[in-house]
Amino acid sequence: MKKILIVDDEPNIVMSLEYTFKKKNFEVFIARDGGEALQIAKDNIPDVVLLDIMMPNVDGYETLKKIKSNPSLKNTKVVFLSAKNKVADIEKGLKLGADKYLTKPFSVKKLVIEIEELLN
Amino acid sequence: MNNYLLITIIVIYLAFLFLIAFWAEKNSKSRWVNNPYIYVLSLAVYCSAWTYYGSVGIASQSGISFLTIYLGPVISIPLWIVVMKKIIRISKQHKISSIADFISLRYGNNRFLGALVTMICVFAIVPYISLQLKAISETFEIITDETSYVSTSVLDDSTFYIAVLLAVFVAFFGTQATDASQRRKGIMTTVAVESILKLVFFLVIGIYVTFFLFDGTTQIYEKASQLDNFREITSFNGLEAGFNWMFTIALSFFAIFLLPRQFHVAVVENDREKYLKKAIWLFPLYLLLFNVFVIFIAWGGNLTLTDEVNQDYYTLLLPLHHDNLILAMLVFLGGFSAVISMVVVSTLALSTMVSNNLIIPYGFLDKFIKSNPEKNANYIKNIRRISIFSLIIIAYFFYINFSYELSLFSIGLISFVVIAQLAPSFFIGLFWNRGSARAAKIGMIIGVFIVIYTLILPFVFNVLAENNSFVDQGLFRVELLKPYALFGIDFLSPEAHAFFWSMFFNTFSFLIFSLLSKGNYRERNYAEMFVNSSNYANLQEGAFVWKGEAYVSDIRNVLTRFLGEERTERALNLFNLKYKVSKEEERADSRLINFSEKLLTGSIGSASARILIGSVAKEQPVSLLEVLKILEESKETIATNKALKEKSNELTILTNQLKEANSELLLQDRLKDEFLDTIAHELKTPITSIKAASEVLTDGDDMPDELQSKFLNNIVTDADRLARLIHNILDLEKLSSGREELEIQSNQISSTIEKAIYGISQIADSKGINVIHKNGSETIAKYDEDRMLQVLTNLLSNALKFTEPEKGIIKVVTKEKKNEIMIIVEDNGKGVPKEDFNYIFDKFYQSKHQNIKKPMGSGLGLAISKEIIESHQGEIWIDKQYKKGARFVFTIPK
């Protein structure tokens, strides 16, 4: 069973994602900000992290850096899921080491496909 | 009086003067030392022993002709405002330290001219100083009793020791600074004090004679009119006497400008030009007071004393005759003061001239170039000190050997006539730019020779030789060459006669030679500066015409020799700053040459300064045409420069304005971009949520009903959020663009607040938060109630959001002020972070912390509230001092 960590501070969005990935047989973890996400990731070593950028306290970029610098999470894929859709933002995200950068609003179906592709 | 007692009194008095000088030097910044009265009183150094004793002597023999010596200065005084101001201004700018320096500078720093002026001054003044010493000695003898010891040699002559003490005084207080153009406040203060003393004592004796020895002025007049020679001494003896009067007045007119001591006190020691304003009425008043009683004392003396006594000393003899020793003592001290101040200032001025214009430029320059600054400063000071002692000693021996025969008045007049030889080049040179150095030299030399021939030679012959054929019959027995009646003019007094002819030939040759020889460019240059001193400041900047090669480092070396490293560095920095010259500049331009010469002038005189600077600067002659062209150009350039500067200033201002506008636009543009960005982001969040939920629902056949309705509910909330956001954005846009018209009506503020509280009461109740409205008043204000509700609701909702459930307390307070109503909404929640104080009213203020904070609500509430309050001409702010939670305050005008 693949583990997915959803990091977003918008509960409604999280709710849809949680439902979708549970249905796809993922083990779903949820975090509301970067700090929480890091703790959960360390404890559970998820296969993939869905990461929002604009969050309270620790933002997405910062969280990504920390995940990447943690050796136990070296196999964890990180996908940005953000409303920031300027080229500069996307480049920044990918440069920092994100495996994918998806913009909001997104299609749930496509998101699932992208994640599954990434994990195979 | 016992002469030891007298010596004791003299010594005490001198000590007192030392003390004053010392005190003044120490308190040189004090108001007591720096004021126009000190300046005016120091001008009274003009009144020497000649005034104090000599006037009475003249008055007793020749009547009121003693007055001429004071009429000249009085007549000249109104001119001071123009002429003296000009002289002072030029002197200050060029650090002029003596009249020799002044004349030498006017004629292009001419070395020989400076030396010539110095020699003329020494020639004129040294005998004059000896006369002053004579006055001390004679009055000393009069006042000591006949039984006293009378000196027989120099070493036990008290006058000698007094002279030496005066030399010590001048050497000590006169050479404190190397720069001779600096003020000697100690000496000037003592001179001023002495001026008061001599006037007061003279008035005391005048009043004593007139009102105590006689019964007032009328009685003296009546008695005196019965004397044999009364008519002779009180009337005006025809046209010839008129000429004598006129010439003597002219003589004293010149003297007040040209006497080295007068130039020193009036120009070198002048601190502020405005002191002249006080001088032009106070100084004539001083002279007037001094002369009020002269004639009465003279008559009183004539009536009381025999012909055998020296009339010069009536002031002493009269009180002694009546056994009033104390009064005689006071008179003696007054006369002593007059002597001291004259001797002190004269030697000071002469020593500066001798050192700066004679000794240094003729022989010490090479030495200076090789030596170091401290040594140089010492050399300069020592040269001056030696000059001071030499001058006083020479004067003393002159007195011992020659002056027994001479009266104060005659020697005084001779020295005036000699000094007057400086007048043509001095006065004409100030107003006529053609005057040249050569002409000045020739004029002066001819003038002095004529004075020697017509006045001094016969005088010496009269004293020394029995044979007076030269005087009686003329040189080579030529009638027309008779020294007292040159070319047949035989009706003038010897002094007036000498003055007339010397001035005539002096002025004539000065004018002729000036017209014949134009003088070199340097002379023309300085002439222009002196003559056009009103636009002097402008001229000075660019007018000094200098062509050639010079290096800054060479000039720096020369300056260092005299000023030392530190002062040179400071001076050059100042120069670079003033003329905006780069420090790296290697080549010196005319301005630096000019500046450096000026710096050195105070220490070594203008001619030496030029020679020194000239030694490191290879100068090339500039033709007269070039000079005139440059002068003309510099005037034009200055005008053009000024216009350009103004224009460029205008442009700079405009450019700055444009820059500001541009950066403001850029900022607005950036803010707009940011705003749009933020809006897009804010809109996307609910849309994302709606879209995701919808997709999930579309696929969710097997979804439980409960979950389904949850998703549906989410969609509704997010749609609401979206709608609210859009509404707020539009609202804000409307408000900030001013398109929104407010519906302003009179409303009761408390009822509006109640309505707002009612609107949020449900949420407040559900969170268990207590909302208190403290106000019973019925204040009415004019505002748009819907908008006001919006503001209040926003503030209240914020407060609700940031307070803890069950514990939260929100207070709304209304305060009525004079012109406005203040409404406070405060809570006991977590408050606003300090760093956000400044952004809290910005649109989406979280945007500064974009990546960190999510907006609560739309992020536009406070921005909208601010717009609303401001469109009501009110203000809204957050109370930064409030620590217990958040406190928002806003005002609206009544």
TrEMBL record, chain A:
<dbReference type="GO" id="GO:0003677">
    <property type="term" value="F:DNA binding"/>
</dbReference>
<dbReference type="Pfam" id="PF00072">
    <property type="entry name" value="Response_reg"/>
</dbReference>
<keyword id="KW-0804">Transcription</keyword>
<protein>
    <submittedName>
        <fullName>Response regulator</fullName>
    </submittedName>
</protein>
<dbReference type="InterPro" id="IPR001789">
    <property type="entry name" value="Sig_transdc_resp-reg_receiver"/>
</dbReference>
<keyword id="KW-0238">DNA-binding</keyword>
<dbReference type="InterPro" id="IPR011006">
    <property type="entry name" value="CheY-like_superfamily"/>
</dbReference>
<dbReference type="InterPro" id="IPR050595">
    <property type="entry name" value="Bact_response_regulator"/>
</dbReference>
<keyword id="KW-0597">Phosphoprotein</keyword>
<keyword id="KW-0805">Transcription regulation</keyword>
<dbReference type="GO" id="GO:0000160">
    <property type="term" value="P:phosphorelay signal transduction system"/>
</dbReference>
<feature type="domain" description="Response regulatory">
    <location>
        <begin position="3"/>
        <end position="119"/>
    </location>
</feature>
<feature type="modified residue" description="4-aspartylphosphate">
    <location>
        <position position="52"/>
    </location>
</feature>
<keyword id="KW-0902">Two-component regulatory system</keyword>
TrEMBL record, chain B:
<dbReference type="InterPro" id="IPR050736">
    <property type="entry name" value="Sensor_HK_Regulatory"/>
</dbReference>
<keyword id="KW-0597">Phosphoprotein</keyword>
<feature type="transmembrane region" description="Helical">
    <location>
        <begin position="408"/>
        <end position="432"/>
    </location>
</feature>
<feature type="transmembrane region" description="Helical">
    <location>
        <begin position="498"/>
        <end position="516"/>
    </location>
</feature>
<dbReference type="GO" id="GO:0016020">
    <property type="term" value="C:membrane"/>
</dbReference>
<feature type="transmembrane region" description="Helical">
    <location>
        <begin position="444"/>
        <end position="465"/>
    </location>
</feature>
<feature type="transmembrane region" description="Helical">
    <location>
        <begin position="112"/>
        <end position="131"/>
    </location>
</feature>
<keyword id="KW-0812">Transmembrane</keyword>
<dbReference type="InterPro" id="IPR036890">
    <property type="entry name" value="HATPase_C_sf"/>
</dbReference>
<feature type="transmembrane region" description="Helical">
    <location>
        <begin position="36"/>
        <end position="53"/>
    </location>
</feature>
<keyword id="KW-0418">Kinase</keyword>
<feature type="transmembrane region" description="Helical">
    <location>
        <begin position="6"/>
        <end position="24"/>
    </location>
</feature>
<dbReference type="InterPro" id="IPR005467">
    <property type="entry name" value="His_kinase_dom"/>
</dbReference>
<keyword id="KW-1133">Transmembrane helix</keyword>
<feature type="transmembrane region" description="Helical">
    <location>
        <begin position="280"/>
        <end position="305"/>
    </location>
</feature>
<keyword id="KW-0902">Two-component regulatory system</keyword>
<dbReference type="Pfam" id="PF02518">
    <property type="entry name" value="HATPase_c"/>
</dbReference>
<dbReference type="GO" id="GO:0022857">
    <property type="term" value="F:transmembrane transporter activity"/>
</dbReference>
<feature type="transmembrane region" description="Helical">
    <location>
        <begin position="199"/>
        <end position="221"/>
    </location>
</feature>
<feature type="transmembrane region" description="Helical">
    <location>
        <begin position="325"/>
        <end position="350"/>
    </location>
</feature>
<dbReference type="Pfam" id="PF00512">
    <property type="entry name" value="HisKA"/>
</dbReference>
<keyword id="KW-0808">Transferase</keyword>
